[in-house]
Write the structure tokens for this entry.
Amino acid sequence: MNEEYTRIFNLFKNDIYRLAFSYTKNYLDSDDIVQSVFIKLYKNFDKFEDDTSIKKWLTRVTINECKTLFLSAWKRKMFPITDKEENVVMDQQKDSSLIDALFQLPKKYRIVLFLFYYEDYKIKEISEILNVKEATIKTRLTRGRSLLKNMLKGGIQNE
């Protein structure tokens, strides 16, 4: 089991970290969430049959951990020391202005766009992960794309 768990950890740790960071916009919180998620996986590892089911489970648990973090009394009373965290390097080939714009979107659009474009989930899978209707996911994708497009056009015009 330890070798298989290590393989799964190495396979998905970066994806889970990026998802946590896209949700929290904080390096330390993202590290804590990844650790918590993989501890939960270790405890439940025998319940899974294949990598696909593990990835879906990890994604769902990561989102739940992010939501739990924001519900904690500690997090609600905290305020950021700086206005903007440095962006995590999502992918060396992606345009940094696109990533900056993505992190400025409201959470409900940012998470859906992240899962769709960066994690390559289909609309139905995102719907299952987030426990929202497929129509809602489609709407959020459309609105999120529109917001991104407007933000990027605005950024280009200002330069």
Remarks:
- The helical segments are 2-24, 27-44, 51-71, 73-77, 96-104, 107-118, 123-130, 134-158.
- The mean pLDDT is 80.
- The radius of gyration is 16 Å.
- The CA atoms of residues 113 and 134 lie 14 Å apart.
